[in-house]
């Protein structure tokens, strides 16, 4: 090991007091007498001791960490949300730890794991694999539209974009461009279901026809590719396609190419989430910006309130999404 | 809250013993007498108490968690590595917690944060932002080729693919296809530097000319796009382009398209990492498979040994990478 940094033990020894007393001084405890306080502070200055937050937090029985639960690192929707969480929780002195249950061995309830790590709070960014209930849970905020268990489990604080409004925005965009024969690719998440039914209802109300297809699994490049290939082969009249998220939409773009369809000339394609994948210049996907950063910021603020004990009733925040028009949508030719 | 699960306190009460004694029984401690043990076990059975691993681990002074440090969630190279870590550490009863310093507020040394979370071990998947030195660090394994501080800090266990061999594989592939005028896009990481110098040396030895360009920042779609656009405009003779990773390569594909170059007819492009981005059907990028899953598996095994105290000298594992040929490379026309 390199030259050692002075530790709390060195300070205790130099001040001729116990380690616990040094801890109390570091926490500004009123229990410490003036003489001991002065001796400890002199030792800290003399040794150049830098109290680690780790030690201070352990002494105070906190870890100052927040666990974030997601279900797929390769679906990049969560990246801006985590940045938003940092914007508020980081300022509040908390650090985030992200666990992806999809890469996991599933041997243990991830909630139990966070408890083992002694997180002070949790952010749930997926349909929870188990009921979020039981003793000793820290404060929890749910981000995104999620399939949550019904009562008698408690309501949680939640922050999401308005997925129904997002679905309607896509319907209005495609129909507004002149598309009347629409396709939709869905998957088995709570958010996808909301996007689908709002898209179908709005498109139908605007005089368009929608053929939807979906499966119960997770979104993947392959699911988007295979789903779009089937849908476009069965319904060659489709000129506008809405996929429940960007990952599916990029799979659909490859299906269109392999079917000889030019995007957007022959087929317009829209995703959801406005991830870095959609923004990549090679992809340049029209998509719905679900305000992931703002969702994270608001979720972080709610969680801070709750961890400080100042929040009361669970609150549900819903933010209005916006359409990001890029290169994959145009009027039908 | 929902119907409460029985807790360790309920068990203690039913067995008329202390909570600490229940803990000792759960840990199979030899300190507990037969009578107390039987009373506790009867209470556990009667109440249907399920000891949480959290409680057991806390009692044993462990968190059974491993911290993983990366520097960019949007560069998907780490996903398979984390899966590999899970394959060994998950079996060993450990859970992973991934922290991305790029989304972070940088207010605190991430190593300190992991200490605050009381991780039992750490995996470092980036050029470390600070010297990995100091008191009380848990066992650490470095994954990937990293810029590590020189002595006197200690050597760490490390697992990486052979980035020099990967660079040579790309040179042989492009020159073997008939390309003699090559370009290279680099960035400011330890791994990128090794890939670059091996690629340049091998291509030159094989009779090709290489124009390299790079910048000191992180890999991004924009860096790949702008770098490739400049390089290909300045050197219109280039027919084969190697980018230091898949993210840069996808940016380069967009630059080629915007310059009117057909891939692979006019320009062959190769990435590095074999991420899900490279495998997406729309991208179908030729790249180097750096065995991220196996790197994670081996790193997890080394860390397990070290956390169990059975490892001795630091060891360096280097795995041979392989070329994954997809749709972005072909002979020059």
What would you say about this model in short?
The first copy, chain A, is α/β, with parallel strands linked by helices and 333 residues long.
Tell me what you see in this structure.
Chains A, B: Residues 6-60 form the HTH lacI-type domain. Chains A, B: It comes from Gordonia caeni. The structure is a homodimer of 333-residue chains. Chain A is an alpha/beta fold and 333 residues long. The first copy, chain A, folds into three domains: 8-59, lambda repressor-like DNA-binding domains (434 Repressor (Amino-terminal Domain), Orthogonal Bundle), CATH 1.10.260; 65-161 and 292-320, Response regulator (Rossmann fold, 3-Layer(aba) Sandwich), CATH 3.40.50.2300; 163-290, 3-Layer(aba) Sandwich (Rossmann fold), CATH 3.40.50. Helices cover 41% and strands 16% of the residues of chain A. Chain A has twelve helices and twelve strands. Chain A has helices at 8-15, 19-26, 34-47, 53-59, 78-90, 110-116, 163-177, 190-205, 221-234, 246-258, 276-279, 292-307, and strands at residues 65-70, 95-100, 121-124, 140-143, 157-161, 181-186, 209-214, 240-243, 268-270, 287-289, 316-319, 322-324. In chain A, the strands form three sheets. In chain A, strands 2-1-3-4-5-11 form a six-stranded parallel β-sheet, with helices on one face. In chain A, strands 7-6-8-9 form a four-stranded parallel β-sheet, sandwiched between helices. In chain A, α1 (8-15) packs across α2 and α7 (163-177) runs parallel beside α8. The longest helix of chain A has 16 residues, at 190-205.
